[in-house]
Amino acid sequence: MHSFVGVLFVGLAAVLLAAGPAQAGTRSLPPLFRESGALENPNFRFDARADDLNYRLPNNTLPIHYDVELTTNVHDGTKKFTGKVQIDVTIVEATTTLVLHKRQLNILSAKIESATSASEDLTISYEEEREFLTLTRKTNVNFEKDTEWKVTLEYEGELRTDNGGFYLSTYTDADGNERYLAITQFESTDARHAFPCYDEPNKRATFTITINHSPTYSAISNMPVDKDASSSGKTVFTKTVSIPPYLIAFIVSDFVYTEGVLNGVPQRIYSRPGTEHEQEWALVSGMLILERLAEYYNVKYMLPKTDQAAIPDFSAGAMENWGLATYREAYMLYDKEKSTVNTQTNIASTIAHEYCHYWFGDYVAIEWWTYLWLKESFATLFEYKATDAAYPEWGIWQQFLTSSYQSALVNDAGNSPRPMTHYVQTPSEISRIFDTVSYSKGGSVLNMWNHALTDKVFQRGLHNYLDANQYSSAVEEQLFLAIQTAAKEENYEIPAKIEDMLGSWSRQGGYPLLTVTRNYNNGSFTVTQSSFHNNKNTVTQKSWYIPFNYAHQSNPDFRDTEASHYLLNVPSVRVDAKLDKEDWLILNKQSTGYYRINYDEENWKLIIDGLIKSPYKIHPRNRAQLMHDAYRFSASNRLAHSVLLDMMTYLPKEDQYAPWSTANGIINVYNRYLSGDAKYYDFQMFVAEIVTPIYEKLGINDVPGEHHYQKYTRNAVINMACLAGIQSCLTETKNKLKALVQHGTPIEANVQSQIYCNGLKQSGDDVFQYVFNQLMDSTDQAFRRVLISSLGCSQNEKQLKSYLESSIDKDNKLRNQERITILSPVYSRGSVGLMATIDFLDEHWDEYGNLNTGFGGTNPLNDALGGMSLYVVNTEQEKRLLALVDKVKSSEHVSSSLEASVKYNIQSNFDWLKSNRDPLMNWFQSFNIKSGTSAVISSSSMAISTLLLLVISRLF
């Protein structure tokens, strides 16, 4: 599943969005630069757990096959549905009971029979805590071991409205009529809402699905339609392969489709009528990516077809139902004339993520949710790897670095980070591990070993794993064995057992800090490992098997990323490199290793000198990561601020996306804390100095045919230039938005986010209302997300108040899933928006807390208050927010730990200012004096920007 739980972490982990096109994971989300704060997520509410309860089903009976028949009248909006399921079970141990799962279903009857036994009624009992449906034989006679039985259950239920289970979705057609559809989202524990079942990932079985529906509607599912068994209003699907229940899917709708075939595999794209012209890109990408994945794994796609469907209401980003992947519309529909390059990229990478699951998660399932990373980490890696194979000209690995890799490093650096392999039991515990550890960290760790062991060994290892465990479920040891075998088959020498090496990363949380100390007399260097935490006073005794390599100034070759050296679970290793003492040394070519690296002071100086003189001798991903590491080291008092800031002075020579995205993230962090400072102008002058050359080169106009990620770079640069108060940026963004409102002059799609946001900071009520009306009228979900984010950029209190109130106005055209996204773009844009949000919640906290969050979501009020605390940087803001928290802390909407968490986040911000403000401001002032940058920003621009640019130009 392409989950957004990791993005919800952002609110709790003080996430700041680096500029880039608005948008999965992405992974379908914009690149993240996450800043310190409650990295241990104290806002998360852990349900009380009864330690004596085992939430796993007993293994005394197992499913073999399901016949599921459902009847729905969703075409007229009816929520009620009826169902009948027949389950062929085998008795593993003699028992009088069968235990299954059910959720929110009314069981009408339960019977059982065998080939040699007549049908008999079963006694029904239900335990709500574990959602156990227990069926007991009335005769008290055992079902004997190794016998097979058919259980028949008839039941009724209601389509849900929280986007989980078997649920109701709607859209408005071209004539303004509301249309209905029924759709499923079963991961991780919601198949039990559509039919009673053994709802665990290792309880595989075959399924035959039958759906009764209006003849005016059609039904689709994992498998093709069985035309001989189907009739008008009754759709029967062919029998599935063996599959876990959570991967079953069906849709009852009036959707239309586009189809194509590549190498014998038919593919269709389904979406609401009127969007047919937006289906082509997903169809072409799907066919190409499926082929690339099958080639890489050397395992053919297994099913006779695959469909993809764009759903109007969808809580996840996308879902890998085998043969019927489902998506948010924003990650499936692409309009050649109106959509952005970012939407284009997101669609391809999201498809790659879901299609990877056809092998990792579907073909080979996970034994239990403890091993969630065994599917989500592979899907995260291959959303880039497969997209790169399909569209190598893009250079998507720069986005991997700025999104998955860097966000994983930040979120995995708390005091007690969880390991990738992490035992869970309850549905709420399961939902919480759909996070950056399972996705971004796991993907980064797999990428590290892919490079360290060579792609040849890694590729063969994945084939071995898939081949050995097909149509079954696996644990991590089976992956380790498959890669170990591959190394032997390829005659590739490895320095230790794969289980020991990879297990040191999956079985303990966090990651290492490599400290590199050079001996400038003999040319050697020493690498020492310790665990890295954002709080440098946190010390643990963890140790890893760490692959590494290096480049240096006399041999600046970053191409070969295979490991040349290892730290084999030892504290340090010495490398006799015979380096020239004038050479810079950089470990971790292309930043494929999942760790941070700190150098001795002299080597940092050599790196900075190398960047300033010849930046292109250093790989762009290393240029980006050097800044990212240096920022983290300076913020945690491991490194002087001057090292990072001196390094950033090379940026006028930079033109690549990953370094600019990283730099923009750092600037946004500084802006968050310093925007109200009396000497803010010194900071703006520094930003103007580093960004002006690239801003003047790229401008604010989209250029057809330019390199894919140059468009991403332009977006980062526009935001930085306007933040810096560069007059041309302020004027041109305002005029572009004004021309749209007054003359209908369209804004190029690829710069919409930047023009709307920066233009709205300077616009009156007429422009604001125009953009709000655009939001209400648009049916393009990707464009709606741009507008939702941009409207929060306003710095007018009246405008923001009306915008915030729209979140609870049930009569407007906001979708339920959009309502809880309104507040963050407002309160994260500075003091005006933060105070407006406090005022809004002070009056409407109960209404906001009652908004529908979608299945598995935490309460929006709790999330908002936790998120707001991350932007409090003065005592007045602190006073107001704490008063609001005190007002609501006894409400059912918020967790018992909210107040402590808010206070912790606020204190963290004050501590940051105390530690970092003075050295930063002193450096900026000194730099401006030395470089004579006072003429960069006009005095009038200074007045405007000081008033208006109080916050980051943050993308939604």
TrEMBL record:
Which residues catalyse the reaction? 354
Q: Which cofactor does it need?
A: Zn(2+)
Q: How is the cofactor bound?
A: Binds 1 zinc ion per subunit.
Q: Which residues form the Aminopeptidase N-like N-terminal domain?
A: 63-247
Lineage summary: Eukaryota, Metazoa, Ecdysozoa, Arthropoda, Hexapoda
Which GO molecular function terms does the record list? alanyl aminopeptidase activity; metalloaminopeptidase activity; peptide binding; zinc ion binding
User: Which PANTHER family does the record match to this protein?
Assistant: AMINOPEPTIDASE (PTHR11533:SF290), PROTEASE M1 ZINC METALLOPROTEASE (PTHR11533)
The residues the entry assigns to the signal sequence are 1-24
GO biological process terms, semicolon-separated: peptide catabolic process; proteolysis
Q: Where is this site: Transition state stabilizer?
A: 439
Write down what this protein is called: Aminopeptidase
Supply the Pfam families for this chain. ERAP1_C, Peptidase_M1, Peptidase_M1_N
Subcellular localization is given as: Cell membrane
Q: What is its main location?
A: membrane
Enzyme Commission (EC) number: 3.4.11.-
Reactions that this protein is recorded to catalyse: Release of an N-terminal amino acid, Xaa-|-Yaa- from a peptide, amide or arylamide. Xaa is preferably Ala, but may be most amino acids including Pro (slow action). When a terminal hydrophobic residue is followed by a prolyl residue, the two may be released as an intact Xaa-Pro dipeptide
Per the UniProt record, the source organism is Musca domestica
Q: Which domain of life is it from?
A: Eukaryota
Provide the alphabetized UniProt keywords. Answer: Aminopeptidase, Cell membrane, Disulfide bond, Glycoprotein, GPI-anchor, Hydrolase, Lipoprotein, Membrane, Metal-binding, Metalloprotease, Protease, Signal, Zinc
Q: Does the keyword Protease apply?
A: yes
